[in-house]
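Problem 12. The chain below contains 418 residues. Write out its predicted structure in token notation.
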Amino acid sequence: MNVWRHSGALLSAGLLAPLGAAALALRPDWRVGWRERLGAGARPDAGAIWVHGASVGEILAASRLIDRLLGAGHRVTASTWTASGREVMRRARPEIPCCLAPLDHPWCVEAALRRVRPAALVLIETELWPSWIAAARRQGIPVVLVSGRLSDRSFPRYRRLGTLVGTPLRRLYAIGSRTEADRERFVALGADPTRTHVTGDLKLEADAKPPPLPADLAALLAEVPLLVAGSTHPGEEAAALAALVEVERAGWAAALVLAPRHVERAQEVAALARGAGRRVRVRSKPGTGPLQAGEVLLVDTLGELAALYSHADVAFVGGSLAPVGGHNLLEPVQSRRPVLFGPHTGSVKHVASLLEACGAGRRLSEAGDFGEAALELLREPELARSRGEAGYRALAAHRGSADRAAALVLSALQDARV
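Solution.
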């Protein structure tokens, strides 16, 4: 039986090898890190838990799960399909080895597994790669899918594939799905119902309470409507300053908080605000007295933005009007605030879609929409409050998803040792 299985794997590898070569030829971006894609590269310490996410959003969403696994005393290594995902992960979590995932070809995945020698393989969302899962099974490595999802659009496609999907699903140690609907779809495709659970969406994991605002910062904030533009990039501060002008022209007295994504831009942003005729207060040297209407508070410190959103009448999250991909949309929502963001949300697309669907998020088509959107929230505080509450409720089911996903992985490790 083993001989026949081995022969089948070799035949499959021979047939698929030209496809792998074609992929590298037709996809120039896949040529980056080609040795890693073929299963080679640096050798991390053996016995780590291997966590894999498709790209930036998925691998960053796995960070809370990674923290739980590290807290339980395990070592973790990570992988992603895209060079951008690898670089973002390396910057965000430099202590976690991160490489490009191997092509889903028997030779590549076997080589990668021999190199990494993981204690377990954790796949995020829909990363159901048959050769990879089969190779891990042959080597006695438990595979767990967490934050698993099957959309209305993808489910019928997977169903038509029959055993091509059902067989890999049955080889998984466990599946932690986002919702009950996702769980039912996995089972319908062939997953073991006793090993398929609802654990929640890692991308929607948020703390139950926002962090407290430091006393000196609370004293600095004015008793006037507050526009908070956080994690901003070049061009977005100008949009926020223009929105403040529009708000003032409509008869509102308001102040603006600017928190650039990179604090080294603080002087540049301060010069921009002063050039627009604004008095600028700097968080690290705020002077005396509370913030006044028309003033700008420039946040040149780290770690206080989430708390600032709890005092916002209007919250905007940057990296979204600028073509960056968007930043953390959950921070305003966990403070029960609706959130504004621009059209570029590739890194947070699932969160953005959820917030739009429940009314807690509004997508600005362009910078000029900022002022009008801010005025709507200021003029209708009850509407703003209800939208913020709707967003908070939408996240409630996913709180604790990292803990539940970690429990599945730790259970797999325990069973693998027995």
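Discussion. The two ends are 25 Å apart (CA to CA). Students who got a different answer should revisit the alignment rule from Section 12.3.
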